Amino acid sequence: MVRFEHPDYLWLLLLVPAVIGLFFWYWRQRRAALDRFADRELLDHLAPGINRRLPWTKFILLALSLPLFVVALANPQWSAQREEMQRRGIDLVIALDISNSMLAEDVKPSRMDRARFFTTTLIDELAGNNIGVELFTCTAVMAAPLTTDYNFVKSVVSTAAPYQISAQGTNLAEAITTAEAAFDEESANHRALIIISDGEDHEGSATSAAKRANEAGLLVYTVGVGKSGASLMPVQLNNGRSDYIRQSGGGPATTSADMATLEDIASSGGGSYFTLSGDSENLAQALRAQVDRIEKQEFETQSFSSYDSYFYWFLAPAVLLLLIEMSIGYRARYEAVS
User: Fold this and answer.
1) Which segments cross the bilayer (predicted)?
2) Interior angle at CA 27, CA 26 and CA 31, nearest 5
3) Which pLDDT value is given to residue 274?
């Protein structure tokens, strides 16, 4: 099977007829200028050593080298062999809190921004596993099913925001239950849930939900973002003005991160609790070390073809033609001087 590694370069082949046309136009203009200067018999007497075929020879060499260079840039490849690879990993859901409390700016630039950036880093670190993303407030939705399309998963994370779920509040138990339903039955004991939240829980049943999930073969990890203490939740209004999330009475509402709840959830879920600080990469690596301890399952066998490159088949003759063209020009100049 033949393919080109960089097929877009093949569009440069359109330059070949353009260059040929330009040369013919130049040659006609040159002939017309010489005819105006003197007739051809007189020109032969004025320049007896002129080689009329030399420009054509040099042009043909250049014209032949150009498509060869283009094909070499595109890098033609031939399939060497077909290989099969057995992929192993776990099913993993990342549950991202998008409740209004994540708008608090007690960590910069905000809890939401910090959580999104970390989640993207975590997805890169956990590549090789089936990864899904769940967004939750008081309800939860699987925004990205379990997949190996990590670019899609990261695009879902990059746009995660409270406006995506109109019902607000935080129900961590609902997040755990919804994540459980996303796993296949065959993945029991090969699955994990990572909850990224500020820990506010308006229902209070998340610990028992984590325990039940763990008994069914799910490990629950939690990552806390935010600080304890009252923090305001800024919001951008439709008219462009800035305001704060407000209580029913009209005054600004406040939020306080609850890391103790997240620690209890992780403990009941058989996992570990982590605090999201400024070093997202190290934290992602620490979580990867935890996830790697989970027994892997075998996923589908993936077949792929390996290819060998043969650009040099075209590059070598192209360079050779150019060297010949340059040597002809040098030889002609040398003979004219001598």
Assistant:
1) 6-27, 59-78, 310-330
2) 120
3) 96
